Amino acid sequence: MAPAAQKTSSNAVTIDVWSDVMCPFCWMGETLLQQAAEASGHELDIRYHSYQLMPHLPADSAVNVNDLLERERGFPREQALAMNRQVAARAAQVGLVYNMDDAIATNTRSAHRLAHFAKQRGKQHELMQQLFKAYLTDGLNIGDHEVLADLAAEVGLDRAAALEALKTDAFAAEFDADVEEARRLGISGVPFFVLNGKYAVSGAQPREVFEQALAKASAEV
User: Fold this and answer.
1) The whole model's pTM is what?
2) I need a surface site. Which of 29, 52, 96, 168 has the fewest CB within 10 A?
């Protein structure tokens, strides 16, 4: 199947997805959607929209996710570790490798702005995959501008241009518009998928749920 970031035919199903790169279920949900599309022969045109699970985190914050869960949610360390094991096991079922104990929680606003930078250059899908992997698998600080610029370069974007966009707060308006649209739609959790502007799927649903939603949406293309 052609890269999801490119609309390859008039029959492609448009997917507007609100997600946060710090959300383990967002990468799982998108992977299940992709698998459903491949199994049913549907083409996708995925458009990513910004959403923050922890907008209150300072821009310069960088804390181990288990420490954050203890501090903000009051979870005992063993409970946090057990939750991570469960999430990693579920991710493995769809072919993803999660190292949640190494994850660095941070403010994701800059990462979202970089996703808009990549969208303008036709590389949004590729960058989002790198951002998910960086946080969920590689334990990188995705709030660090140098790290983000490296990730941009890895998908073929100009590193210097990406770094300049991050430093100058470029694409802040696009980020704010996504957040406002999520509020208007009543989105209170991610991932949240809207198919062809009509059909919504919330969460990392089983592949069969996505297959049914794709069939319904594509019937009206």
Assistant:
1) 0.93
2) 168
